Amino acid sequence: MEFNLEVHLIIEGSGLVTKGRFSARNKREMATVAHKYIRSIMHETGYRRTYIEKVIANGTEEITEEVREIEKRPIPPMDDIFW
Fold first, then answer.
1. How many CA within 13 A on the CB side of residue 44?
2. What distance in Å separates the CA atoms of residue 36 and residue 29, rounded to the nearest whole number?
3. CB 65 within 8 A of CB 53
């Protein structure tokens, strides 16, 4: 499924608004895709302090809280990964 994404971020006091068209397998995966996109922006900006102000899918559906919840998840320990 294709969807439009609009992301509003504050990076160390400067506002950034970016839009794009993305693909997801289903509606529940939209927040994960948005989070990955935000992480790529953070990578490009040197991981400066970033606040997720607003995330909107398809122009009307606010998914900000879902994306923030993904951001808050702890990183799993490396002991659980099989190589």
1. 8
2. 11
3. no
- The pTM score is 0.87
Rounded-to-integer distance, Cα 23 and Cα 5, Å:
10
User: How far is Cα 73 from Cα 22, in angstroms, rounded to an integer?
Assistant: 23
Question: CA 22, 26, 31, 36: dihedral to nearest 10 degrees?
Answer: -50
What is the mean pLDDT of each successive set of 10 residues along the chain, which is 83 residues long?
97 96 95 97 95 97 96 82 66
Task: Return the half-sphere exposure (C-beta side, CA atoms, 13 A cut-off) of residue 72.
Answer: 7
36-49: string of b/e by CB count within 10 Å (b at 16+)? Answer: ebbeeebeeeeeee
Q: How far is CA 17 from each of CA 4, 5, 6, 11, 83, rounded to the nearest angstrom?
A: 13, 11, 7, 11, 39
- Which pLDDT belongs to residue 1? 94
